[in-house]
Amino acid sequence: MAAFAQEQLDALVNGMYREGFLDEQFQQIRALDEGGSPDFLVELLGLFCTDADRMLNEATVLLNQPIVDYKKVDAYFHQLKGSSASVGAHSFKLTCMLVRDSCDKNDKEGLWIYFTIAYDSA
């Protein structure tokens, strides 16, 4: 049973890798997980998801203000970009870069479009 579950997990991860959701950083972390603590990857991804959820919620509050503080939104997405790069979440990292680009341009419409993509993919 455990071998079957591992095969399913491998197939899922390989599919996400092929689709560009994950990159080689994730594979490296996964290799570390296999050689060390069995819960390392689970804990790391859990922390990433918790932090991403918190920052996305805080960014939502900022985006719902009549006047958007683009610098604060950019700061959240700067952190999210770094965190996503650290865990190998390639497509999320790219979306964070697009959000930051919209912040640089004070483009509220573009910001909402890319923010929604980031929020839905987190």
TrEMBL record:
Domain observations: Histidine-containing phosphotransfer domain (HPt) contains an active histidine that mediates the phosphotransfer.
Main location: cytoplasm
CDD domains on file: HPT
Signal peptide: none
Protein name as annotated: Histidine-containing phosphotransfer protein
Domain HPt: 43-107
Gene3D superfamilies: HPT domain (1.20.120.160)
Keyword terms: Cytokinin signaling pathway, Two-component regulatory system
InterPro entries tied to this protein: AHP1-5/YPD1, HPT_dom_sf, Sig_transdc_His_kin_Hpt_dom
Lineage, broadest ranks: Eukaryota, Viridiplantae, Streptophyta, Embryophyta, Tracheophyta
GO annotations of cellular component type: cytosol; nucleus
Keyword Protein transport assigned: no
Annotated GO biological process: cytokinin-activated signaling pathway; phosphorelay signal transduction system
Role of this protein: Functions as a two-component phosphorelay mediators between cytokinin sensor histidine kinases and response regulators (B-type ARRs). Plays an important role in propagating cytokinin signal transduction.
Entries under Pfam families matching the protein: Hpt (PF01627)
Superkingdom of origin organism: Eukaryota
Subcellular location: Cytoplasm, Cytosol; Nucleus
Keyword Plastid: no
GO molecular function: histidine phosphotransfer kinase activity; protein histidine kinase binding
